[in-house]
TrEMBL record:
Belongs to the QueH family. GO terms for biological process: tRNA queuosine(34) biosynthetic process. Disulfide bonds join 178-180. It catalyses: epoxyqueuosine(34) in tRNA + AH2 = queuosine(34) in tRNA + A + H2O. GO terms for molecular function: 4 iron, 4 sulfur cluster binding; epoxyqueuosine reductase activity; metal ion binding. It comes from Candidatus Wolfebacteria bacterium GW2011_GWC2_39_22. It is an enzyme of class 1 (oxidoreductase). [4Fe-4S] cluster binds at residues 15-16, 93, 96. The gene is queH. This is Epoxyqueuosine reductase QueH. Catalyzes the conversion of epoxyqueuosine (oQ) to queuosine (Q), which is a hypermodified base found in the wobble positions of tRNA(Asp), tRNA(Asn), tRNA(His) and tRNA(Tyr).
Length: 187
């Protein structure tokens, strides 16, 4: 008699399919993944749509649910208000991370997921400790578990190298800036 093992549900906040490609491989056997594209920071809308289409392609490859959050642009600008002039990696980014992770955690609760995490932490351009601290704090408030890079099972360096290779194989869309209008200006 065959038995089906039910995997715990994890909501994966994903901002691009590049960072999500290998992370999907690492998490797929441990969790039922729900891909959550909640990125009101991305500017312009055309770029937002390109990244979204690529993430939808990734979710389809894994036969997984894809959910799009609100493209709440005005709310995002309100969230980072006063920090527009900060460099990438400065004081604006933790506000941007928190907004997206808080919504991801809310979705996790609504979907009956026990875990959530984000592709953001795998990017070499992002501070995984800052993201880990924010995610863990939000998780505690809602009784969830947030997976940090240390929980992914491989080093950040290896994940990045493997994800780039995999993304090329899948021909995923590759952006050349973080996402917000201020990150375009700084290039
Ligand atoms: S640079 Fe990236 S992480 Fe920082 S505020 Fe802009 S979109 Fe968000």
């Amino acid at each position: 008699m065959s038995s089906t093992v039910t995997k715990p549900k994890l909501v994966l906040h994903i901002c691009c399919s590049i960072c999500g490609a290998y992370l999907s491989e690492l998490l797929k056997d441990r969790f039922e993944i729900i891909y959550y594209y909640y990125n009101p920071n991305i500017h312009p809308e055309e770029e937002y749509e390109k990244r979204k289409a690529s993430v939808q392609k990734l979710a389809a490859l894994y036969n997984s649910e894809f959910i799009e959050g609100d493209y709440a642009v005005q709310e995002w600008y309100k969230t980072i208000s006063g920090f527009e002039g900060e460099p990438e990696g400065g004081k604006r980014c933790p506000l941007c991370f928190r907004m997206r992770l808080a919504k991801t955690a809310q979705l996790a609760v609504a979907k009956g997921a026990t875990h959530f995490t984000t592709t953001l932490a795998t990017s070499p351009y992002k501070n995984e400790d800052v993201i880990g601290a924010i995610g863990t704090e939000i998780a505690k408030e809602l009784g969830l578990t947030f997976l940090t890079v240390a929980d992914f099972g491989e080093s950040k360096k290896d994940i990045w190298a493997k994800t780039r290779t995999l993304a090329k194989e899948h021909n995923f869309y590759h952006q050349n800036y973080c996402g917000c209008t201020f990150s375009i200006w700084k290039k």
